[in-house]
Amino acid sequence: MKTKTQFTGRHWETGSIHNALAMQGVKAPHTGEPYSEALLLGISGGITFGYFTFEYKGYLPHVAILTRNTFNPFSTMLERLGIAQDVQQTSKPDIAEKNLQDTLASGLYPLAWADQFSLPYNDLTSDAAMWGMMPLLVIGADGKSVTVADRSSQPLNISMVDLTKARGRVKEDKYRLMTLDAPQTTKLAGAVQKGISQAIALFTEKPPRGAHDNFGFAAYAKLAELLVNTRNKHSWERYFAPGVRMYHALAGSPVQPGAYHWVNTWVTANGADRRLYADFLVEAAHILKKPALKESAEKFSESHQLWLKFAEALLPDEIPMLGESKKLIQKKHDLFIQKGEAALPEIKQINVHLNELLEMSKTDFPLSNAQAVELRASLRDILLKISAVEQTAVDLLQNAIV
After folding, report:
1. Which of 21, 108, 166, 243 could bridge 114 with an S-S bond, Cβ 3.0-4.6 Å?
2. Rounded distance, CA 291 to CA 285, Å?
3. What is the residue extent of each domain of the chain?
4. Are 153 and 7 in contact (CB under 8 A)?
5. pTM, to two decimals
6. What DSSP state is assigned to residue 11?
């Protein structure tokens, strides 16, 4: 099965819905073009900042830097846009495959939830303790193989056996299949307004779940302090001490994202999706007839440049091990987007090299304690600049939608 279609959706949630609507030929009323992923990001709750650390027995500690709304963004998009859904779910793999084939035969393109660790094109090590059920778009099947759209610009081919296995990994999402109707255009302005209000709240108010200082401007202040604090047990000096722990926080591994991934590759676009959110605000200004939103867009564009600087400071070129890690992480990401499964041999080699660098960091970490202090201080300085710029951006946003 082959298709010449190229896909522009990049994130599991916003990207999969963008791809699904585009494949159905659905056009946005204000552009006459497919609903942009920037618009969907904004409607889903937009951007924020979240900071978490985790350490599980048998695994290295890791950091999670969240740059966009993570509170049910997928269902939020559908609800706000009034997109009706037809959902099929079963506990039986043979029925799951029949549902998939029948849906495609009817001329529809279904979304399916699949475990990312079980999909061969991701080259992720199988681990009983790790899974990640994410939506992807199914665009074709011939009984033995299936073609899907999943973050890459290229269609990806997978055996029906492998896809069924991935779809059945987690009980809650087991063999779920969903098709989407077109958005209700009368709800577009309200959806945009609600999305902006949610983004403001995520920056400034207590989040729906979790501690107040894990999200928004409070989280910026928290991380800035932990980067330079020497006594707090959760400070980077103690929790991510120079060596493999610090390396893993910065660069992660082929399985676990590090801070660089969260900013530049686990999002729709680099720079923590700030440029993308600025694009949303330009669209929102037209939809809501509120040109003042463009002032906030300009500040988020400024923030985008600072986020790019922050990513570079995480893995600076002048420190060879870290600079090399950055180049490999970025190359792997770019190869998958540009070439899809055709890049798998190169991606496998990159993963081998990244694992070697992770292992090397255990005994030959390139920073002394003093150099680690300097690197963390530089990260703190950039982070505080980001926070200040985004405080202005959010203030402008709040004033514009009153």
Report:
1. 166
2. 5
3. 85-180, 185-401
4. yes
5. 0.97
6. S
CA dist 94 and 164 (Å) reads 9
Sole residue written with tokens 């997978």: 158
Residue 76 to residue 35: CA distance in whole angstroms: 16
* Chain center to CA of 214: 18
Cα separations (Å) of 199 from 2, 159, 217, 351, 397? 40, 40, 12, 35, 10
Type of residue found at 342: A
Identity of residue 348? K
CA nearest neighbour of 119 among 63, 83, 75, 167 = 167
